[in-house]
């Protein structure tokens, strides 16, 4: 089981959190010229790397806030946790 460090509540077990997917997906500029392919890639296409991966997590059984995690997908080691609006809290 993962031990995830919530920036507000401190270390908690993985069962208290909800996974939110890839953290660094840039949103396309909203425009009438944006085609369906661009929007579908934004909504559905995600990286699946072997190694370090930036993820979004929500502390659903605690403070209910969203934050970013940098996790190695091979070892599950978490090397960085930070709020989206501030500095690293680790």
Short description:
The chain is mainly beta.
Explain this structure to me?
With 90 residues, the chain is mainly beta. Helices cover 10% and strands 36% of the residues. The protein has one helix and six strands, in the order βββαβββ. The strands form two sheets. It has a four-stranded antiparallel β-sheet with strand order 3-4-5-6, with no helix packed on it. Strands 1-2 form a two-stranded antiparallel sheet. A hairpin with a 5-residue loop joins strand 5 (66-72) and strand 6 (78-82). The longest helix is centred in the middle third of the chain and has 9 residues, at 36-44. The radius of gyration is 15 Å and the shape is globular. The mean pLDDT is 91.
Compile the SSE list and pairings.
Blueprint: E1 3-6, E2 10-13, E3 18-22, H1 36-44, E4 52-58, E5 66-72, E6 78-82
Antiparallel strand pairs: 1-2, 3-4, 4-5, 5-6
Please give the share of residues in helix: 10-25%
Q: How many beta-strand runs?
A: 6
SSE sequence, one letter per element: EEEHEEE
Low-confidence residue ranges: none
Number of helices, counting only DSSP H or I runs of 4 residues or more: 1
The CA-CA distance between the termini, in Å, is 19 Å
Task: Fill in the keyword field for this structure.
single chain; 90 residues; mainly beta; 4-stranded antiparallel beta sheet; two-stranded antiparallel sheet; 10% helix; globular
